Structure formats: C-alpha cells, structure tokens
Amino acid sequence: MLQYVIWDVDPELFHIGSFSVRWYGLLFALGFLIGMQIMTYIFKKENKPVTDTDTLLIYMVVSTILGARLGHFLFYEPEILLKNPLEVILPPYRGLASHGAAVGILTGLWLYSRRKNSQATGQTFFWVTDRIAITVALAGACIRFGNLMNSEIVGRPTDVPWAFIFMNNAEYEKIPRHPAQLYESISCLILFFILLWFWNRNKERTPRGSLLGIFLIWVFTLRFFYEYLKENQVAFENNMALNMGQILSIPVVLLGVYFLFRSYQQKTTHRDTVSVK
C-alpha cells in the first residue's frame, strides 16, 4: 500500500540564461507534434493530400491557443479581458480553458474545411473533426500531465493511499490531495487508444461525427465529475452549487450526444438507401 506520494518535481526542466524550458510547455508542444504525425499517417491511409497537414497544424495551434485564452478570460476573469484585451494573445499564458479550446478548435476546423473545398477533397468538417479528436485526446493527456508537473489544478484533500502532497504549490496546504491532473491525463490516454482503435477498424467508413461525439461525451462527462475532486479555480466558484467547469461541461456533453446520434442516424439512412437500390 502506498503511503502518499511526495510530489516535489521542479516545473522547470532546464534553463539557458534567462530562457527556461518548462515541463508544461514541452508536453504542450509534444502533444501537437505527435498529433500531427498521427494525422499524417491518417491522411496517407485515407489518400488525402499529406501536404495539407501543415496547414491543418497552423489552424490547430492558432485556434487552440486563442480559444483557450479567450475562454479563460470570458469564463473566469472577464474583468481583465475588459481592461486589457491584448492579454489574450500576449505571454505569459497563465490561463488556458479547455472549454474555450474546444470552441476554438471546432471553429478553426470549420474554417479549415471550408478553405480546403471539402466536397472536392473529402475533408468535410466531420471528417476532419473525427480524426483530430484522436490527436486531441492524446494532447489532452500530455497537457494534464503538464499540469501535474506544474503542481497546479490540484485536487481536494483525501486519505486515499495514492494521494499526492504537492510541495511546490504555495496556495494550498501541503496535505494529501487527489492527483486530479493524473486522473484526467489517464482518462484522455485511454480515450486516445479507444478512438484510434475505432478509426483503425473503420477508416473511411467511420460514421461522420461519431468520434467527435464520443470525444465530447467522454471528456466532458468525466470533467463534470472530476470537478468534485478538484479545488475551485477562482474564488467566485466557492458560492456556486456547480462550478464553472461543470456548468460549461453540460452543453458540451449534450452537443456530443447530438453528434453521435446524428452520425448513426445518417449511417442507418445510408444503409437503408443502399438496400433499396
């Protein structure tokens, strides 16, 4: 039996002069880099132009960062957004909201699919989002592990034997807490393998919107329940029955249910049409 984990990891990997490389930034970048390798593999398997992955990477990076930053200020610190809107794009990036990232990515991929003349290339909105969902699940695992390395987004106090004592977080008492970041990281990693298996089994026959629907339902349903194990991110949440993360997760889960239902409804309709012919 474990006797708690003393988490005393330095969030800085190394530094050269005034330039430092932190675990979080490295894992964030790694999620994009590995993700694009996976997308290149998918494009090759489904006979799509591999050169398009370069453009797709740009859309993903810009939409993720802008969406996550804007979401953070809109949902958690709107007063700062009103005072200094440039903080959305200027470093240091001290606040990133996953719900904002989800909206940003969906918007960016909609613009990407329109630019790529989706009907001609087969890169429709749902074709792209289904496959990007695989890589985003892996990136989510990397990012949440980065939060663990930063000793941030910590869990509530607990006496479970796998609890972590976060020595480098001055905001909270150094007592055993749920490693909530690790829970989410492992959940995203499991989802990555499920989505990859599902795509590999179906490839171009993958029902449009199915992987996106599974992703949204899995990630944000778990996010809703994980919030009960986490400390609130901002003070105003302490007086709320549901915190901001839970409130925002509900419509995203419902959207995922709609996408999943729609994908299989269209699949059934297509199969019935083929049978009639």
From TrEMBL:
Binding-site list for a 1,2-diacyl-sn-glycero-3-phospho-(1'-sn-glycerol): 144
GO biological process: one example: lipoprotein biosynthetic process
Free-text function comment from the UniProt entry: Catalyzes the transfer of the diacylglyceryl group from phosphatidylglycerol to the sulfhydryl group of the N-terminal cysteine of a prolipoprotein, the first step in the formation of mature lipoproteins.
Membrane topology, from the record: Multi-pass membrane protein
Pathway: Protein modification; lipoprotein biosynthesis (diacylglyceryl transfer)
Name used for this protein in its record: Phosphatidylglycerol--prolipoprotein diacylglyceryl transferase
Family: Belongs to the Lgt family.
Pfam families, per the entry: LGT
Enzyme Commission designation: 2.5.1.145
Organism expressing this protein natively: Spirosoma sordidisoli
Residues spanning the membrane: 23-43, 55-76, 96-113, 125-146, 182-199, 211-229, 241-261
A cellular-component GO term for this protein: plasma membrane
Annotated compartments: Cell membrane
Lineage: Bacteria, Pseudomonadati, Bacteroidota, Cytophagia, Cytophagales
Keywords assigned: Cell membrane, Lipoprotein, Membrane, Transferase, Transmembrane, Transmembrane helix
Superkingdom field: Bacteria
GO molecular function: phosphatidylglycerol-prolipoprotein diacylglyceryl transferase activity
